[in-house]
Amino acid sequence: MQFDPDNKIVKLCAQGMDLEGEGKNEEASNIFLQAWEQASNHKEKFTAAHYVARHQKSIADKLAWDEIALNLALKIKDDSVKGAYSSLYLNIAKGYEDLQEFEKATKHYETALVYVNFLHDDGYGKMIKGGVEHGLERIKTHLKK
Hints:
The protein has helices at 8-21, 25-38, 42-53, 59-75, 82-98, 102-114, 123-144. The longest helix is centred in the C-terminal third of the chain and has 22 residues, at 123-144. The protein is globular, with a radius of gyration of 15 Å. The chain contains seven helices and no strands. The protein has two domains: 1-58; 78-145. It is mostly helical and 145 residues long.
């Protein structure tokens, strides 16, 4: 998925990521919320929501923001966004797994797996695919107990 480096929301999210890298998580969180508040379309809102989710204090709040990000991504009329679906479904599945809602987690991990073909065959793509596969394995192991 292509992002316009001159877009104000992309710039804010990049600034927030820089702050994360410096360990300034509170400041990063504020920047991501600012991006959310200033976002004016589904793509900008999806981008901001994805980063807002990362800074939630509870699993339930993170899951809610991950679901917002996914629902916004699904509204974007651009096939290139499908490359983000696996990551979004993975995040949601992990939230449900952490909440021990294994049926919902399994459903989302399986949906994430459907979209791995849209990922590039690079480190990021392999990380997401591995995360999905490991999540499914963890749930299978847990349910066998």
